[in-house]
Amino acid sequence: MPELPEVQALVDFLDERMAGQAVGSLELASFTVLKTVDPPPQALAGAPVDAVRRHGKWLDIDCDGTHLVLHLARAGWIRWSDSLPSTPVRPGKGPVALRLRLADGAGFDLTEAGTKKSVAAYLVRDVTEVPRIATLGPDPLAEDFTREALAGILAGRRTQVKGVLRDQSIIAGIGNAYSDEILHVARLSPFALAGGLDDEAVDRLHSAIRSTLVDAVAASAGKPAKELKDAKRSGMRVHGRTGEACTVCGDVVREVSFADSSLQYCATCQTDGKPLADRRTSRFLK
C-alpha cells in the first residue's frame, strides 16, 4: 500500500504536470469506485486544476473548488501518460478504475491490480466531506508534530505501539511498511505498549518517525510515478526482508504473521534478542 512518502511523491509529480491545466473529462471504468453522486463527474469538465495536495495517504486534486479525492488502498496506483488514448475507457475492462483526462490530452489512469477492489474516489466541495479524512490524526511531518505532541498521543494508551503508528485516526500517513521501519530505527518492539514507553523511548520514536519519513520522501522525490513502488521496496531496512541479514547488526530479520498482514523486525535491535511469538496475543516466545 502506498504510504505517506509515496503519496507525497505522487502529489509532487501530479502537481507539476497538472496545476494550471484544465480538466477535459473524468471517465469511470468502474461504477463502484466513485463513492459520491454530487457533484457528478461532468462537473470537472473545463475546470482548472488549482493544486494537488495530500491528506495522510489520500490524494486531493483541487479543481476550482471541486475536489477529486483518491485513496489507493492496497493495490491501487496512478499511471500517468503524456498522451492518453483518444477512446474512452471501457467499463469492466482491465485494471483501470478511473481516468482523468486533461484538455491537452495528458492525464492519468487510476488502476487497481487483483480481484479485491478497494480503491476509492470522492468528488466533494470540501475534503472534510470524506469521512475518513475528517477523522485523520495529525500529520507526522507537520511542524506541530513535536516530541511533546507525540508524548501526549502515547500517554495512557494500552495499545501496542505498532498499532498506534498504523491507526490513521491517531497519526495520519504511516502504514504497515513504514511502521516496521520506524520501530527498527527507534529500537522498539512492535508489541511494546504505547503508554509504557519511557522518556528516552519517546525521544527515539519521535526522532525515528521524522527521520524515516523525511528520508523516504527525499528518496522518492523526482522519481516518475512508475518507479516509486520499486524505490520504496529497495529502501526498506526490515519490512519485506524476512530471512535477510539486518543491515545494522547482522542478525536475521524475523516475521510475525497475522490473518491479512505481517510485520518484520530484528530481535537483536528491537527485542533484546528475544524472538516475538508469531501470534497476536502473545508477547515473547519463552
TrEMBL record:
<dbReference type="Pfam" id="PF06831">
    <property type="entry name" value="H2TH"/>
</dbReference>
<dbReference type="InterPro" id="IPR010979">
    <property type="entry name" value="Ribosomal_uS13-like_H2TH"/>
</dbReference>
<dbReference type="GO" id="GO:0008270">
    <property type="term" value="F:zinc ion binding"/>
</dbReference>
<keyword id="KW-0238">DNA-binding</keyword>
<dbReference type="Pfam" id="PF01149">
    <property type="entry name" value="Fapy_DNA_glyco"/>
</dbReference>
<dbReference type="InterPro" id="IPR035937">
    <property type="entry name" value="FPG_N"/>
</dbReference>
<keyword id="KW-0378">Hydrolase</keyword>
<dbReference type="GO" id="GO:0034039">
    <property type="term" value="F:8-oxo-7,8-dihydroguanine DNA N-glycosylase activity"/>
</dbReference>
<dbReference type="InterPro" id="IPR010663">
    <property type="entry name" value="Znf_FPG/IleRS"/>
</dbReference>
<keyword id="KW-0479">Metal-binding</keyword>
<dbReference type="Pfam" id="PF06827">
    <property type="entry name" value="zf-FPG_IleRS"/>
</dbReference>
<dbReference type="GO" id="GO:0140078">
    <property type="term" value="F:class I DNA-(apurinic or apyrimidinic site) endonuclease activity"/>
</dbReference>
<dbReference type="InterPro" id="IPR000214">
    <property type="entry name" value="Znf_DNA_glyclase/AP_lyase"/>
</dbReference>
<keyword id="KW-0456">Lyase</keyword>
<dbReference type="InterPro" id="IPR012319">
    <property type="entry name" value="FPG_cat"/>
</dbReference>
<feature type="domain" description="FPG-type">
    <location>
        <begin position="237"/>
        <end position="271"/>
    </location>
</feature>
<feature type="domain" description="Formamidopyrimidine-DNA glycosylase catalytic">
    <location>
        <begin position="2"/>
        <end position="93"/>
    </location>
</feature>
<keyword id="KW-0862">Zinc</keyword>
<keyword id="KW-0326">Glycosidase</keyword>
<protein>
    <submittedName>
        <fullName>Formamidopyrimidine-DNA glycosylase</fullName>
        <ecNumber>3.2.2.23</ecNumber>
        <ecNumber>4.2.99.18</ecNumber>
    </submittedName>
</protein>
<keyword id="KW-0863">Zinc-finger</keyword>
<comment type="similarity">
    <text>Belongs to the FPG family.</text>
</comment>
<keyword id="KW-0511">Multifunctional enzyme</keyword>
<dbReference type="InterPro" id="IPR015886">
    <property type="entry name" value="H2TH_FPG"/>
</dbReference>
<dbReference type="GO" id="GO:0003684">
    <property type="term" value="F:damaged DNA binding"/>
</dbReference>
<keyword id="KW-0234">DNA repair</keyword>
<keyword id="KW-0227">DNA damage</keyword>
<dbReference type="GO" id="GO:0006284">
    <property type="term" value="P:base-excision repair"/>
</dbReference>
